[in-house]
Amino acid sequence: MESADKIRRLREQTGMTRKDFSIHIGIPLRTIEDWEAGRRRPPEYIPRLIDYQLKYEELIGKMKKEEQDVD
């Protein structure tokens, strides 16, 4: 899968707009747009880092929810 497709798929999984996604992960909007359009390619490790960040945030969210359910 191309880097552009990976970035787009990750963003779409979050349900965020490009602008919200760029703010969330701390990468400029123009860069996200260029990656998704295939005008530029992110370094190979970037999609993996973004995927890791999103999975980590999901895990933390689940843990907090479980903690609240116990209280």
Walk me through what this model shows.
- This protein has one domain (3-70): Orthogonal Bundle (434 Repressor (Amino-terminal Domain)).
- Helices cover 77% and strands 0% of the residues.
- The chain is built from four helices and no strands.
Brief overview:
With 71 residues, the protein is mainly α. 77% of the residues lie in helices and 0% in strands. The N and C termini lie far apart (43 Å).
List the defining traits of the structure above.
single chain; 71 residues; mainly alpha; 434 Repressor (Amino-terminal Domain); 4 helices; 77% helix; elongated; Lambda_DNA-bd_dom_sf
What topology does this entry show?
Elements: H1 3-14, H2 18-25, H3 29-37, H4 45-70
Helix pairs in contact: 1-3, 1-4, 2-3
Uncertain spans, ≥5 residues at pLDDT below 50? none
SS elements, strand count: 0
Secondary structure category: mainly alpha
Count of discrete domains: 1
Largest sheet: none
Q: Share of helix among residues?
A: over 70%
Strand percentage: under 5%
Number of helical segments? Answer: 4
CATH topology: 434 Repressor (Amino-terminal Domain)
CATH class: Mainly Alpha
Distance between the termini: 43 Å
Average pLDDT over all residues: 92
Q: Which sequence of SSEs, written as H and E, runs from N to C?
A: HHHH
Radius of gyration: 14 Å
The second-level CATH architecture is Orthogonal Bundle
Overall morphology: elongated
Domain HTH cro/C1-type: 7-42
Pfam families: HTH_31 (PF13560)
GO molecular function: DNA binding
Organism: Fusibacillus kribbianus
